Amino acid sequence: MIQIVFSILFVVLGIVFMLMGSLGIVRLPDFYSRSHAASKSDTLGILFVIGGLIIYEGFTQSSLKLLFIILFIALSNPIGTHALARAALRKGIKPLLFNRSSKEDSQ
Amino acid sequence: MEHFFLYSAIALTIIIAVPMVRVVKGPTVFDRILAANAIATKTIVLICLTGYIFGRIDMFIDITLAYAVLGFLGSLVIAKYLSSHRMRRQRQREQS
Questions:
Q1: Which residue in the set A25, A49, A91 is minimally distant from B19, CB to CB?
Q2: Quick check: pTM over 0.90?
Protein backbone atom coordinates (compact mmCIF):
# COMPACT_ATOMS: atom_id res chain seq x y z
CA MET A 1 0.00 0.00 0.00
CA ILE A 2 2.74 2.46 0.95
CA GLN A 3 4.48 1.47 -2.30
CA ILE A 4 1.46 2.64 -4.34
CA VAL A 5 1.19 5.89 -2.34
CA PHE A 6 4.86 6.76 -2.98
CA SER A 7 4.50 5.82 -6.66
CA ILE A 8 1.51 8.16 -7.12
CA LEU A 9 3.33 10.95 -5.25
CA PHE A 10 6.43 10.68 -7.44
CA VAL A 11 4.47 10.53 -10.71
CA VAL A 12 2.36 13.58 -9.81
CA LEU A 13 5.47 15.53 -8.73
CA GLY A 14 7.23 14.70 -11.98
CA ILE A 15 4.23 15.75 -14.07
CA VAL A 16 4.15 19.10 -12.21
CA PHE A 17 7.86 19.63 -12.99
CA MET A 18 7.30 18.80 -16.67
CA LEU A 19 4.37 21.27 -16.80
CA MET A 20 6.73 23.96 -15.45
CA GLY A 21 9.26 23.10 -18.15
CA SER A 22 6.69 23.35 -20.92
CA LEU A 23 5.38 26.69 -19.70
CA GLY A 24 8.97 27.94 -19.41
CA ILE A 25 9.71 26.99 -23.01
CA VAL A 26 6.68 28.96 -24.17
CA ARG A 27 6.85 31.97 -21.84
CA LEU A 28 10.51 32.86 -21.23
CA PRO A 29 11.89 35.76 -23.33
CA ASP A 30 15.28 34.51 -24.53
CA PHE A 31 16.77 31.44 -26.19
CA TYR A 32 19.25 30.77 -23.39
CA SER A 33 16.67 31.08 -20.62
CA ARG A 34 14.40 28.79 -22.67
CA SER A 35 17.18 26.21 -22.87
CA HIS A 36 17.58 26.54 -19.10
CA ALA A 37 13.90 25.66 -18.62
CA ALA A 38 14.02 22.81 -21.12
CA SER A 39 17.13 21.19 -19.71
CA LYS A 40 16.79 21.21 -15.93
CA SER A 41 13.09 20.94 -15.17
CA ASP A 42 12.41 18.37 -17.90
CA THR A 43 15.25 16.15 -16.70
CA LEU A 44 14.06 16.32 -13.09
CA GLY A 45 10.44 15.60 -14.13
CA ILE A 46 11.41 12.53 -16.16
CA LEU A 47 13.58 11.29 -13.29
CA PHE A 48 10.67 11.62 -10.86
CA VAL A 49 8.09 9.91 -13.11
CA ILE A 50 10.30 6.95 -14.02
CA GLY A 51 11.41 6.70 -10.37
CA GLY A 52 7.76 6.40 -9.40
CA LEU A 53 7.29 3.66 -12.00
CA ILE A 54 10.33 1.82 -10.55
CA ILE A 55 8.77 2.01 -7.05
CA TYR A 56 5.51 0.61 -8.47
CA GLU A 57 7.32 -2.18 -10.33
CA GLY A 58 9.52 -3.55 -7.52
CA PHE A 59 12.63 -5.64 -8.16
CA THR A 60 12.23 -7.10 -11.64
CA GLN A 61 14.09 -7.03 -14.95
CA SER A 62 11.86 -4.21 -16.22
CA SER A 63 12.77 -1.99 -13.26
CA LEU A 64 16.47 -2.54 -14.07
CA LYS A 65 15.82 -1.37 -17.63
CA LEU A 66 13.90 1.64 -16.27
CA LEU A 67 16.97 2.43 -14.14
CA PHE A 68 19.10 2.34 -17.28
CA ILE A 69 16.68 4.77 -18.92
CA ILE A 70 17.03 7.12 -15.93
CA LEU A 71 20.84 6.99 -16.19
CA PHE A 72 20.77 7.57 -19.95
CA ILE A 73 18.39 10.54 -19.72
CA ALA A 74 20.29 12.14 -16.84
CA LEU A 75 23.38 12.03 -19.06
CA SER A 76 21.91 12.76 -22.48
CA ASN A 77 19.36 15.55 -21.94
CA PRO A 78 21.80 18.16 -20.51
CA ILE A 79 24.40 17.18 -23.12
CA GLY A 80 21.95 17.80 -25.98
CA THR A 81 20.83 21.15 -24.58
CA HIS A 82 24.43 22.21 -23.97
CA ALA A 83 25.35 21.35 -27.56
CA LEU A 84 22.42 23.42 -28.84
CA ALA A 85 23.35 26.41 -26.65
CA ARG A 86 26.98 26.24 -27.78
CA ALA A 87 25.89 26.11 -31.42
CA ALA A 88 23.69 29.18 -30.87
CA LEU A 89 26.57 31.03 -29.18
CA ARG A 90 28.91 30.23 -32.06
CA LYS A 91 26.33 31.35 -34.59
CA GLY A 92 26.17 34.72 -32.83
CA ILE A 93 22.84 34.85 -31.01
CA LYS A 94 23.22 37.37 -28.19
CA PRO A 95 21.71 36.83 -24.73
CA LEU A 96 18.91 39.22 -23.79
CA LEU A 97 20.85 41.15 -21.13
CA PHE A 98 24.06 41.27 -23.14
CA ASN A 99 26.01 44.55 -22.83
CA ARG A 100 29.25 45.31 -24.57
CA SER A 101 31.13 46.80 -21.58
CA SER A 102 31.09 43.62 -19.50
CA LYS A 103 32.46 41.69 -22.49
CA GLU A 104 35.34 44.16 -22.85
CA ASP A 105 36.07 43.88 -19.13
CA SER A 106 36.29 40.11 -19.33
CA GLN A 107 38.68 40.33 -22.26
CA MET B 1 -3.92 1.78 -10.63
CA GLU B 2 -4.38 1.54 -14.41
CA HIS B 3 -6.87 4.41 -14.15
CA PHE B 4 -4.25 6.59 -12.49
CA PHE B 5 -1.74 5.81 -15.24
CA LEU B 6 -4.40 6.56 -17.86
CA TYR B 7 -5.22 9.97 -16.39
CA SER B 8 -1.57 10.89 -15.94
CA ALA B 9 -0.93 9.88 -19.57
CA ILE B 10 -3.77 12.19 -20.67
CA ALA B 11 -2.30 15.07 -18.62
CA LEU B 12 1.13 14.35 -20.10
CA THR B 13 -0.31 14.48 -23.62
CA ILE B 14 -1.66 17.98 -22.92
CA ILE B 15 1.74 19.01 -21.48
CA ILE B 16 3.51 17.66 -24.58
CA ALA B 17 1.24 19.74 -26.84
CA VAL B 18 2.28 23.02 -25.14
CA PRO B 19 5.83 23.46 -26.67
CA MET B 20 4.36 23.09 -30.18
CA VAL B 21 3.65 26.84 -29.87
CA ARG B 22 7.39 27.45 -29.71
CA VAL B 23 8.01 25.05 -32.61
CA VAL B 24 5.58 27.00 -34.81
CA LYS B 25 6.49 30.60 -33.94
CA GLY B 26 10.09 30.34 -32.66
CA PRO B 27 12.22 33.28 -33.84
CA THR B 28 15.35 31.25 -34.59
CA VAL B 29 15.95 27.68 -35.69
CA PHE B 30 17.47 26.88 -32.26
CA ASP B 31 14.17 27.60 -30.50
CA ARG B 32 12.41 25.19 -32.82
CA ILE B 33 14.99 22.43 -32.25
CA LEU B 34 14.92 23.01 -28.47
CA ALA B 35 11.14 22.66 -28.33
CA ALA B 36 11.21 19.57 -30.57
CA ASN B 37 13.87 18.05 -28.29
CA ALA B 38 11.67 18.74 -25.23
CA ILE B 39 8.74 17.01 -26.97
CA ALA B 40 10.94 13.99 -27.77
CA THR B 41 12.17 13.61 -24.19
CA LYS B 42 8.66 13.83 -22.75
CA THR B 43 7.42 11.22 -25.23
CA ILE B 44 9.80 8.72 -23.54
CA VAL B 45 7.72 8.96 -20.34
CA LEU B 46 4.48 8.74 -22.34
CA ILE B 47 5.59 5.43 -23.91
CA CYS B 48 6.44 4.05 -20.43
CA LEU B 49 2.99 5.00 -19.12
CA THR B 50 1.39 3.43 -22.20
CA GLY B 51 3.20 0.20 -21.37
CA TYR B 52 1.68 0.22 -17.88
CA ILE B 53 -1.81 0.97 -19.27
CA PHE B 54 -1.64 -2.07 -21.57
CA GLY B 55 0.09 -4.21 -18.92
CA ARG B 56 3.02 -5.02 -21.24
CA ILE B 57 5.87 -2.99 -19.77
CA ASP B 58 8.43 -5.68 -20.70
CA MET B 59 7.73 -5.04 -24.39
CA PHE B 60 7.34 -1.24 -24.30
CA ILE B 61 10.55 -0.67 -22.34
CA ASP B 62 12.70 -1.76 -25.30
CA ILE B 63 10.82 0.64 -27.59
CA THR B 64 11.52 3.37 -25.02
CA LEU B 65 15.26 2.65 -24.95
CA ALA B 66 15.51 2.75 -28.77
CA TYR B 67 13.47 5.97 -28.90
CA ALA B 68 15.66 7.66 -26.27
CA VAL B 69 18.87 6.83 -28.16
CA LEU B 70 17.44 7.99 -31.49
CA GLY B 71 16.09 11.29 -30.12
CA PHE B 72 19.39 12.11 -28.39
CA LEU B 73 21.43 11.35 -31.51
CA GLY B 74 19.10 13.42 -33.69
CA SER B 75 19.31 16.56 -31.56
CA LEU B 76 23.10 16.22 -31.11
CA VAL B 77 23.72 15.77 -34.85
CA ILE B 78 21.55 18.78 -35.74
CA ALA B 79 23.40 20.93 -33.17
CA LYS B 80 26.80 19.86 -34.54
CA TYR B 81 25.62 20.59 -38.08
CA LEU B 82 24.38 24.07 -37.21
CA SER B 83 27.73 25.01 -35.63
CA SER B 84 29.86 23.41 -38.34
CA HIS B 85 32.32 25.15 -40.65
CA ARG B 86 30.22 24.45 -43.71
CA MET B 87 27.31 26.54 -42.37
CA ARG B 88 29.71 29.35 -41.43
CA ARG B 89 31.26 29.38 -44.92
CA GLN B 90 27.82 29.41 -46.52
CA ARG B 91 26.81 32.37 -44.37
CA GLN B 92 29.94 34.30 -45.33
CA ARG B 93 29.17 33.60 -48.99
CA GLU B 94 25.67 34.96 -48.53
CA GLN B 95 26.98 38.12 -46.87
CA SER B 96 29.59 38.84 -49.56
A1: A25
A2: no
